[in-house]
Give the backbone structure.
Amino acid sequence: MNILTNHLPTAELQRIDAAHHMHPFTGGAELAAKGTRVITRADGVMLTDSDGHEILDMMAGLWCVNIGYGRDELADAASRQMRELPYYNTFFQTSHVPVIALSQKLAELAPEPFNNTFFAASGSEANDTNIRLVRQYWAALGKPSKKVIISRTNAYHGSSMGSGSLGGMAHMHAQGGLPIENIVHIDQPHWWAEGAEMSPEEFGLLRARQLEQEIDALGEENVAAFIAEPIQGAGGVIIPPETYWPEIQRICDAREILLIADEVILGFGRTGKWFGSEYYGIRPDIMTIAKGLSSGYAPIGGSLVSDHVAEVIGRSDFNHGYTYSGHPVSCAVALENLRIIEEENLLGHVNDHAAPALAKAIESFADHPLIGEARSLGMLGALQFTPDKSRRVPFKAPKGTIGQIAREACFRNNIVMRHVGDRMIVSPPLILTEEHCEIFKERAGKALGETYATAKAEGLLEAA
Ligand SMILES: *Cc1c(COP(=O)(O)O)cnc(C)c1O
């Protein structure tokens, strides 16, 4: 019998899953003991699990389901494309209609001077492409020593050897020999955790100027690029101080280095603009895209490449590509997704309704005894736990203890929020409404209440 259509009991699915499926970013022992939550279907902003629970998905899957679940138009686009041309490659002077149409559409949506896309199947792959792109760019200009890419601690750029090295996650670098050579990290602009007695504005400038210092320390003739998420996502929805990006842009303008904006989360509407770079007035040379490009309905990513970089790369063979670069089904799905974002004016919905409603809901938790910072920007939000609201201090308990308790409480209350250390984050579908925000406030409120009660009962509210 077909396991996909014959819904086995939850315990049986969990047993098979634990026996045969190795999960990303999950401990095997923990998984076997507790069992996974098995999601069986979804519609709009709501997931349904194998026991029939209806769960509010405040993470849009993994930051990707921008248009929400259950859009038949995307299923139809995939089905049509699979019947017409399920696969063909884009190597060796061949192309196909979906990749041509999507390239044109992206050139239209992206700000000038972005008119070219190099496709991948994911954000990780696209950032691997970027490592080779920027180094090849300088090599083609006769400056092969410009190899070093500067990134930031606690950045997330993917999980392959290259993109994981670009990222600045200590727990990832602790395994498997990362980072690879010629990638260095400066500090993140995380004022709440690291700003000490400085004002956010002072701190933003200080952290931005580390880029200048690092370029000087390495020698400008050795630096290829700086890569950053305009707002760090997986690092904890870290919204930089307002002084940060203008200063970074000033430094990039003054120095001969490329700027890569990793737009994998922000791209396609999350800030209320098509790209986060537009929100901050940044002028990158390359933008990484994935996630919201197809709203997660099919795997696709890519590098949006500005004209001067594309021109230099195009002078010779670029010895790089993936079997699924510009996969026709993914391209067809992405095109339909972009059509929906555009024709249904989802950016307008974000700016006029969804983002203000989310901001109000997030702010409603500002007075909660556990919460030291409640912030949002567009369709991203963060709730920072602290044992002492007045002093921005962490807990004495190991980092992530309270976050983990909160995550379990969210599970129990049928809401998905993610914890990054002792910080809860949200990144819901862009179609979020005020009614969804009411459900969010109610369920998150219960989960936070339970978290506080548990932390108090277990004596975990002590400051470090
Ligand atoms: C998710 C993410 C990636 C990696 O994308 P994958 O499709 O998981 O490989 C890269 N950059 C950012 C900012 C991300 O959030």
Notes: The domain at 37-67+346-457 is CATH 3.90.1150.10 (Aspartate Aminotransferase, domain 1). The pocket of pyridoxal-5'-phosphate is lined by residues 63, 122-124, 127, 156-158, 229, 233-234, 262, 264-265, 290, 301 (CB under 6 Å). The chain has two domains: 37-67+346-457, 72-343.
